[in-house]
Each structure stands twice: as C-alpha cells, then as structure tokens.
Amino acid sequence: MDTRGSKFLAADALEDIGSNPTGNPTLADVLEERFGRRDVMRGLLAGALAGPALLSVRPAEAAEKGMAAAEGKPAFTFTEIAHGVDATHHVAPGYDARVLIRWGDPILPGAPAFDPMKQTAATQAQQFGYNNDFVGFAPLPRGSKSADRGLLCVNHEYTDEEVMFPGLGGEQGKANFAKMTRELVDIEMAAHGGSVVEIRKVKGVWTYDAKSPFNRRITAETEIAVSGPAAGHALLKTAGDPTGRRVRGMLNNCSGGVTPWGTWLSCEENVNSYFWGKLADDHPQAKAFKRYGIPANVFNWGQHHDRFDVNKEPNEANRFGWVVEIDPYDPNATPKKRTALGRFKHEACTLAVGKDGTVVAYTGDDERFDYVYKFVAKKKFNAKNRAANMDLLDEGTLYVAKFGANGTVDWLPLVHGHGPLTAENGFPDQATVLVHARLAGDALGATKMDRPEDIEVNQKTGRVYVVLTNNDKRKPEQIDAVNPRAANEWGQIVEILPIDGDHAAMKSEWRMLVRGGSPAVGGQFHAETTDNGWFACPDNLAADNHGRLWVATDQGTAWAKASGTADGIWAIETDGPRRGLSKMFFRVPVGAEMCGPCFTPDDRTLFVAVQHPATDGVDLWEGFKGKVSTFEDPATRWPDFKDGTPPRPSVVAITKTGGGVIGS
Ligand code: FEO
Ligand code: CA
Ligand code: CA
Fold first, then answer.
1. How far is the CA of 553 from the centre of ligand 3 (A)?
2. Ligand 1 atom closest to Cα of 252?
3. Which of 173, 269, 407, 495 is most buried by a 10 A CB count?
4. What is this structure's pTM?
5. Could you tell me which of 651, 654, 616 has the C-alpha nearest to residue 635?
6. Ligand 1 atom 3: residue of nearest CA
7. Residue 593, strand partner residues
8. Atom of ligand 1 at shortest distance to CA of 254?
9. Is 214 exposed, middle or buried (0-12, 13-18, 19+ CB in 10 A)?
10. CA of 129 relative to ligand 1 center, distance in Å
11. Looking at 9-23, 74-88, 146-160, 174-188, which range is the least confident one?
C-alpha cells in the first residue's frame, strides 16, 4: 500500500514519522566534498555518477549469451496500451485478462457464496481475503515445473471498510471509527492475512478449486510461531503469550517471495496502523515506538481487542513487522515469524542462492528515509533434502546497506557487540538488535532511501533490482547519488550487482536503471520510450523465467500529479542498447493499485493482483469528480459490475490469446 492512500491521510503525522530522525550523513555530504555544493544541489552529478560504467562487475554468463537484448533484438514485442483512467482493466492487444479469484470467493469446505449484505467473521475466514497483494505460484506436484496446476499463495494486506460494508459513508479517517463495531472489526481481521488456493489451467483458462485439500486461510487470529534469535525474548512476551513464542495472526502482509525449497515468505509491512492509544512519553520503549510510528491509530481494533491497545499490551506491537515463512504444501503447518531477518516495515523478501548453496535474502523497509537490508544464512541450501532447509532463515547475519556515491554498496552487519550495537547504546543482546532493527540501522549510518519497496533477484543474470517508490519529503540538501531528486514524487529503480556473482559479500556495486516520471520532471528512461511507456511510483517487480523485468506501480492518491494514468504493469529492458526502454502492458481500474506480478514457470501466464479498486484518488477522476467512494456508490463496481455488489480486489490471470510466452 501507499500510505498516502486515503485511509492513511488522517493519520499521516503519527504513522509516517517520515520517519528517520537520525543525523546519518547523506551521500550529499560525500558528493559535496568531492564536487562542490552547487552541482550537487542542481542534481547534475547524480545522474552522471549513477551511469552504467562499473568495470569490476562481470556480467553473468546468461546475460552475455542467450538473451534477446544482447543480440540487439527487443526483449518485448507486444503492442503497448495507453495511459488512461477508467472503470475497468486493460491489457495489450492479443492477450486475455480474466478474473481468477475475488474477495469473498469461497475457498474452504462449507464456505457460503459471497453475499456483501450477510458478511460475518466466520464466513470471511472461509473466503478469499481482501486487498490481494503478493502472489506466488507453487507448482503441483511439489518439486515439479508444472505450469498448469499449482497453489496460488496470496497476501491480503489490509481492508477498505468504506467500500466493504454498507452504511459507513465515505472514508474520513477517524470519523469512521464510531461505526466500526466489534462485529465489523472481526470481519476485517478475518479478511487480513493470506490465502493458499489450488488453481488449474484447463484448455487455456485458469480456475480455482474450491474443494482442494491444500486450500487455506491465514487471518489476524491464526496461530503463528516465533522463531530465530528473538523468540522468547522479554520484548515479545504478553499476557496472552507469556512464552513470547506464539503470536495470533499476521498483519499488513504486503509483498513477499518464494524460496527454492518451496515455501512462501509473506512480509508484514505497515503494522503500526493497527495499534491504538498512546504510549507514555517516559515508557521504556517510547523511543523505539516513535521510530516505528506506533501507535498510528489508523484502525480501531484496539477499541475492541485489548492486545491492539498499546496502553494495555505494549509488547504486542513488537510481535508484528516480521517476515513470515509458510509451507503452502502443508495446510496444517504452523507459519513462522523469522526474527533473524529483523523487524521493520518489510515490503518483500527475495532470495538468491550462490553456487556453493549460500542463501541470501534481500528485503527493504518501506518508509521514507529507511533502509535496504540483506540476510546471509549460516547453513547452506540442500537441494536434496527439503527438511534440512525449512529453518535456514533462523540463523545467519542481517546487514544494512550503505550506498556509496562511487557506485559501491557496503553491507554493515547488525550484530550485537559489533561497532555501536552495544548494551551501552541500548542493544543488550541480539534479540533487541533485531526487534529494533531500525535503531540499529540508524546507529550504523545506513543510507536513507526513498521508500524501499520490492526487491527482485533476476535469477538469469544474478542482478538485483531495488524499487524506491517515492519520497516527497526529501529536501534538496538531502539528495544523494542513489536518491537523486528532492520532493521525489516519482521514484527510481536501482540495480545492485554482486561482485563476481557473490551475493553474500560485504561489498556490492550499484547503478541506476531508471528514474520514474515524465522527462519533464526528471524521469530518465531510454530515449525510445513513448509517452505511454514511462511510469511513476514503481512498487512491485517480477523477473520472468526468460530474465526479463516487469514493473507494477502504486501511485496512491497522487496518481493525477505523478503521471495522470492509473497504475499498471510495464515491461522494461535491462540489457543491451535498449536498457531502460519501458512499455505499458496492463492497466488497473480507477482507484486501484497494481500488485503481484507473478509468472508461471513457463512464462505463459502472468498473475496480477488488483488491489483496492475504487478507493485511491477517485475524486480526481473525471468520471467521479469530487466524490469519495462508498459501499452504496463506489467509483467502479469492478470486476462484477452488478448493482449492489461492491468493488472486489481480485487476482487476474493474463494469457496470450491462443497461447504463448507473455510479452514475446
Ligand atoms: Fe504495501 Fe510498500 O506497499
Ligand atoms: Ca503499494
Ligand atoms: Ca507494495
């Protein structure tokens, strides 16, 4: 989600502490020293420094051979669609985009059909949840490369109550709380979390199997184990769980990842939204809570459930903000919060496995001025023994990134006792370093980024793509080489190049792929990119199995200012003479953001997730001018377009008409 979205505007001052008050030197300091303040302020150097020449990087073999771009041919041959905004979705000509599963569709035995006038928490817990974000595909049978039968693993990030429930009126932030009864809050809690659902492609068309024994719902009440170094720590103990090892639920699961051993990583992002009340200024955890923006009072769950009230149960907040690992092949397996990967607003978690089996997980903290991280597991991946990999993410070293103006990345370890991470500085043990990872990153002097969203490893080339979505609060004196624009409404995509292919090394190199926005506002794409080809506010990424990159956007309520188009999917060249050439492939209905995207192993299906249709910035659309959506009168009733049926977040399956590889 983009916390500039309508739900969060009222809470902005509290929630988005904006958020990093430390005096960590920005790279502008380094640049100023080398090139003088005037050029830095004018932004002239940043582009040049982010240029492509990085001599020590050896392109991976796969990038040198085989790829179309390296031969001078375009990687994408589809006809792009136009920027625009309307009530429905659009895909490039020659493709079919069919709704596969929608909020409220029954997926567990005995679940009733969706009836928006008869919602209960019990029925919602048996139906597909709200606001589908991350989408993963786990082939069936497990271990196969099946591309026509598998388990769809989907995050349900949050809820938009004003278009879910009748009678609430338009969303006005806190004004809605009075009408948000315990009953409605419990439905919201059941609509959060995730879904596993079996899907099949028959005669070219995908359907889901409501009767599959693999189907599962995880909600804000599902029991989840805490594992890794912080499990059982005093900061995680509550009245409801004196062990500090058993949490109820996962929250605000945004993007995620899949592991080579066939598990799903689901990332808890804006978890501060769910906490209620006000922590006393002299509370021992006051500094950490402020750094994490807790409580944000966006949802009123704390009015009805004590554990979300920080006055009654402050430690409950420490039990959210983690990467959760789920085995989709075992519906009875307890999901695990992997504390070794740190606690912050995880957007995503993507793995690279080295030739020697070293597992590296990249993950970012989606807040203005927050950090990029990677985790290096201690034990190696074992391709022959799945069970040996199941707790790999419990042991290892977490690092935070410091981006150099000269194109290097230094990875700084978050290890208790190392450098400033000592008891005297508020880090008495490794668990505290991980629970307060943001504070540890501050102490180490990490680079303050423009909201790190998805990070994707291109498994063909070994290069890593980091999305920085936007940061309208960056001031001219705060720009640096990797965050080169002040009042950045448009974002950028950064490429990290592991030196000699070693993801685990403490140094990498980086260069800019593109800067978002139109050329008029400093957007930088390949010169042949059309007026429909550039994008703003990149959010999610997918590298397909041919090694090509696809970008999903989330402009929030700022879409009119950022680009004038609804969000969507763009394909972007990353190699050869067309590097940075981008084309629009898919567009969402008004008020939605684009999530997913996910390819089947044969690249013949692209799953995309349409999140919160009819909500963000609909007042700016000429078809709904000046209005806000309600259950009774939404800006669009996508995808059902039936009177009385509200808009429904849905996963869409895109295939080529008659079959074929997407994009070619
Ligand atoms: Fe949930 Fe950072 O988007
Ligand atoms: Ca988003
Ligand atoms: Ca996102």
1. 8
2. 1
3. 269
4. 0.92
5. 616
6. 1
7. 611
8. 1
9. middle
10. 17
11. 9-23
